[in-house]
Amino acid sequence: MPHDQKTPVRTGRPPLTERRKAETRLEVARAAVRLFLANGVAGTSAEDIAAAAGISSRTLWRYFPTKDSCVKPLLTGGIEHTARCLRSWRRDQGVTDLLDMMREQAAGTVNDIATDRTALLNLVRLTRTEPGLRAVWLEAHREAEPVFAEALAQRAGLPGPDLAVTVQAAMINTALRVAVEHESFTTDPAEAETAGYPEAAVYEALLIAARGFPS
């Protein structure tokens, strides 16, 4: 390609192959959680997960570096949804507008945290006793924080995240993690299908973070 020509910027929906890969990764995550719940992490092999997801072991290892990391697509759904909303959050809108946007977009999104609510809550419960899964959960949030910070910096009209924006991103990130953990650790698993779990806790946690410390 001549040096004065730029590579076209792709917009719109991702290509079909990318969507299929994302769907495959999500199905692997669902299968992994089902097996981890039934047999434990130690009692589940990567081959078991691949077979349950209907793919080969070779394909599984192309998507995931470790057995524990197979669950990551379920853990990142809510994080990615929040990042999308932060990028659309205008400077003239308040926190309640952001929360309304999150509710509206979640209602029309296929792969958000509401779709796999039961699997997500069961998985986060497992992170209390499975160090490998806990590491994946914390890593997902570690990766999210700079993404949130970039979105907030753009909203503020800054060239990049400053200290205030970085702290705000950390507050949002922590609110998300703590809210989902709180619902997972304190809610009866039988109630996981109830509408509003864990979304209501996420929204409440974000409002708490926005209010800051009591005077």
Word description of this protein:
It is globular, with a radius of gyration of 19 Å. The protein is an all-alpha fold and 215 residues long. The protein has helices at residues 16-39, 46-53, 57-63, 72-88, 95-107, 117-126, 131-156, 163-186, 199-211. It has a domain at 72-211: Tetracycline Repressor, domain 2. It contains 9 helices and no strands. 66% of the residues lie in helices and 0% in strands.
The CATH architecture of the domain at 72-211 can be given as Orthogonal Bundle
Strand content: under 5%
Average pLDDT confidence is 86
Round the Cα radius of gyration to an integer and report it.
Answer: 19 Å
Distance between the termini: 61 Å
Task: Quote the CATH topology of the domain at 72-211.
Answer: Tetracycline Repressor, domain 2
* Broad shape: globular
How many beta-strand elements? 0
Going by CATH, what is the homologous superfamily of the domain at 72-211? Tetracycline Repressor, domain 2
Please give the share of residues in helix: 55-70%
Total helical elements = 9
SSE succession:
HHHHHHHHH
Please write the CATH class name of the domain at 72-211.
Mainly Alpha
Oligomer: single chain
The largest pleated sheet is described as: none
Low-confidence regions: 1-11
Structural category: mainly alpha
